[in-house]
User: What shape does this take?
Amino acid sequence: MPVILATDLIVFFLIAMAVYFAIGSRKEGTIKTAWHELRKNKLAMLCLAILSVYVALATMDSIRWRDAILEESGKAALTPDGAIIYSPQALSVLDRVFSNIRTNTEKTYSTPLSSRQYSKESVEKPDGTIVRDYPILKYPGTHLFGTDKVGNDVFFIALKGVRTGIVIGAGTTIIIIPFAIFFGVIAGFYGGLIDDIVQYIYTTLSSIPGVLLIVSFMLLFGTSGYQGGLLSELNIRLGFFVPNERLFWLCVILGITSWTDLCRLIRGETLKLRELEYVQAAKAFGVGKLSIISRHIVPNVMHLVLITFVLQFSGLVLAEAVLSYIGIGVGPEMGSWGNMINTARLELSREPVVWWNLLAAFIFMFGLVLPANIFGDAVRDALDPRLRYR
Amino acid sequence: MSAPIIEVKDLKTYFQTPKGIAKSVDGVSFSIPRGGTFALVGESGCGKSVTALSLIQLVPEPAGYIAGGEILLNGKDIISLTESEKRNIRGNKISMIFQEPMTSLNPVFTIGDQIMETIRLHQGKTKKEAQEIAIDMFRKVGLPNPEAMINEYPHRLSGGMRQRIMIAIALACKPDLLIADEPTTALDVTIQDQILKLINELKASMGTAVLLITHNLALVYQNAETVGVMYAGKIAEMASTKDLFRNPMHPYTVKLLRSIPGGKKRGKALDTIIGTVPPATSYPLGCHFAGRCPREMEGCATIEPPLAERAPGHLVACHLHDPEFMNKPYSKPIRQEPDKLSPLATPFKDREIILEVKNLKTYYPIRKGLLKRVVGNVAAVDGIDLSIRQGSTLALVGESGCGKTTAGKSIIQLIRPTEGEILFRNNDLARLGDRELKKYRSLIQIIFQDPYSSLNPRLMVKDTIEEGLKTLKPDMGKEARMKRIASTLERVGLVPEMMYRYPHEFSGGQRQRIGIARALAVDPEFIVCDEAVSALDVSVQAQILNLLKSIQRDFGLSFLFITHDLSVVEYIADEVAVMYAGKIVERNRTEEIFSNPQHDYTKKLLSAIPRIDESLVNAWKLPGHH
Assistant: This one.
């Protein structure tokens, strides 16, 4: 029985966009020229490869289904009216692929790739004597980033964080961009009353303290939603769709609080562009306003959009950590780097220090944010014909 | 004459660029005596400004560096000084005024603060003494009410006033050398006249030496004693102003002088120079002008001509004047351009009137308050009448802010006028709706000033030109469109293959040609040229003016030429309308306006433009072969 979360739609949209650009890069046009430029940049290609791995992981983690509960006999268990009973746990492709490390849990902490536990216990020796020693793990040497307090594999938790990171970073920006471009461009291009209204909206929004708005919004919508972990029948619509999801609301509110900056930038740029002579020339040809906007204005504000996308992306991934820290971010059962950092806070203040939780979160975040920045820069340059043929 | 205040010997300023070393200044020598004015003149990118920055030791580091030579200020070399010693010279011994008065003053300090800062820093005066000096300087530069001026902020002052303040600041410490880098390029011609007079007066009374850097040859003719013509990092010719303008010896100087538009050249094509200035990273080994020179010889590209005295007090760097070189076998000419200007005439006949403007008014509303109510209007164009005949050129001249650009945009309906009629072939454009107007859009077009902002950097040339065709000639098939684009590009002197390139791959002049092609592609009958050649170098300007004249001749186009440059007007216009504060103060045939101006403002305008004596024009001949 498949299960689709609201945020899965964001991931699928991201993939659809990637496919669109991949097809676009085969046909003649701007995308093809940009792709051609991009291919020359080896570093950007490396970053693209890394990003693809991340997106692939996020995709694998976004396709999930519930298995039927089996009876002893191996047949599916049925309700009294004859419907199949499904497990409340929806396992994703990622869960199933990494089934080994997911289920190979230890008792408690162990350092990366170690064969022994991190804390001493009373261990019975073969000769019957009992000594206090570091016990040998059940699965020694298999935990790349060690295990956490309850013995879960940290590498696997970090892997689960990939989807959350991508959704928060890309999802929020995807929500922002259309609004920011639309409002920014119409405010700048038409001016007058429209400009006043748009400015009024974003000035009002940005005059509300962001954190307070996020907190109240999350308390209002987020708490009733699906938090990760086991599914409740209350959350499911149409038998497979989970529209009310905490992570999704988080994306929405982060989008609401952060579109104003980009909108303001775009409005300013549009104000400048609309007076430029090539726009005047188009007007002198009687070219329609919509086509002036789409040909002359929007392409020339895209560099702002890309820069903001990249900056926001990193910022949002980090914001998720902060929000999880104060308890209004992602649910505790959903793997996220923010949650890992939050737990690491306590682990770093204990003795001896447990550092691998933080390290894993750091490496995974770094591995996403840095290539995203470099790739974003490269894309911006590739899209700008002025920088070509250097 | 006394010992020179500044002496520059073989100055070389290079820049490290990704493409190699750019030899922006490649061996320049000159000297300026006390109270003298030396002008460095040349087109953009020839190294004039870098020379100035080298003198004041402000070459942008670390990319730029002084690679050789000496700069002697009162006999002492300043290149080897320490940074703090250099700081002591800047603003004190050598000071500089810049082109853009609007951005040279800090908007958050009063002008009094800004001038007193310099005085106190360099002269160790108390605040009170500094204030007295400041007031005295303000009086000297002719600011009204200097005591009150001290407390004014820059934004409250006009461009001309700000430039006066810049001069006051520059001269406050009584420097030995004043560098004026295009001091009047951003100013109106009447203000320009005042500023240059002011510089000359102060120079005479304070004994300051002046290095005047400009691209305007007429300005040099009237204001400098000695001139150095710079080309591609080198001085091509240096002589007293009188000698240079009477007897230009370097082919580049001759070409440059002959490309300046003016009344004497009416009906003829302006002289142009083939090709473009090579990039500073790849100058030819020999003469930098080789490859473009109308008298190039076999040895020119490889043997460097020395800057040598070829007539009394007249230095030229050209092999043509070197008898020894001319006797060598490699003096065989490889290019021999004719020494005559070809005719390019469009005789003005009384043809039918194509466009008539009656009582045009364009007001900008002033909105105030929360509800943005209109509390008043700015009358940008306040009731003007114009008429333009088919195949002729009407020039609309005036200073910045007089409403001439608004008038032009109102005529082609980029701005809807508040009142009045615009009769194009007896149809009132002002009264047409957007849809009906579309029929006329292809007949009335516009060419803009700035070749950099007039093309969308993200569209290929093809798309830029195609846009108008797609909108205004929707019946045209794709193939026909492409044919049209190719033929139009050819017509404006570009190669059809260039349509697949982006704007940044072209030079300023080429971009302007693309702008012309864009307008031309839709078969217009009337084109507004809004300062269409004002941003271009004089040799490029000549090419564009020639192009405009030739398309006018071939297609019978009418131009409304909006400009502030009266020498262009004198060359190209059949009729002139002088605009002042939203109104037209005088309208007449070009010859009449220039020979017999009626309105006081026209007289003032004409007397303010720097001019080169027209009788010299016939003396400008390319050096001949022996």
About this structure: The radius of gyration of chain B is 26 Å. Residues 241 and 489 of chain B are 41 Å apart (CA to CA).
